[in-house]
Amino acid sequence: AQSVTQPDIHITVSEGASLELRCNYSYGATPYLFWYVQSPGQGLQLLLKYFSGDTLVQGIKGFEAEFKRSQSSFNLRKPSVHWSDAAEYFCAVTNDYKLSFGAGTTVTVRA
Amino acid sequence: DTAVSQTPKYLVTQMGNDKSIKCEQNLGHDTMYWYKQDSKKFLKIMFSYNNKELIINETVPNRFSPKSPDKAHLNLHINSLELGDSAVYFCASSPTGQGRNYGYTFGSGTRLTVV
User: Fold this and answer.
1) What count of CB pairs under 8 Å joins A to B?
2) Which residues are CB-neighbours of B99 under 8 A, at least 6 positions away?
3) Residue-number span of the structural domain to which A100 is assigned
4) Which of A32, A101, A106 has its CB closest to that of B43?
5) pLDDT tens per residue, range B58-90
């Protein structure tokens, strides 16, 4: 069965500092992986996705993620965090039938 | 134009009532979903419909009944509401087949509070 694990429940980062959110997946075949962001009181917005090709993918809002098959990981990074990046971040994996989410990581940005 | 729209955005109701949440997508997608986000923000799929046909029912109580009048609409009706039904419900849509793997589009959510 497909699943994702986000080991970090909550991360606090200073504005301007770099950010890395961890995601580990479990999937029998080639995974299709996603990162979504949920700002307070808002819906889910797709940041980026990976399904094949270059293992470093670029997304919106200056985010990137790297797929590492050997580590079953798909970590999200941003070089310099803005206060508006404070949100809940979800890693997800899909088969042909459904999207399964990790438990999410809450990112707090301090001034 | 909003791609996936849900109504209402907020819903406060008493235990035992019956309520409905509506969802519409204008993306031309064939597959629609309902997800539930609990108080710990965990997102879990409830239902999936493909071209008006139910393809996923993830052990959801019978009090929850999805209805898809056409492939652009997926409504969620909940009977005999319980306190534990309080959550945020998200509607989503995606293309069918391999296109499904290219991303799901979510609505802005309906916050249901049962008192």
Assistant:
1) 55
2) none
3) 3-110
4) A101
5) 878 999 999 999 999 999 999 999 999 999 999
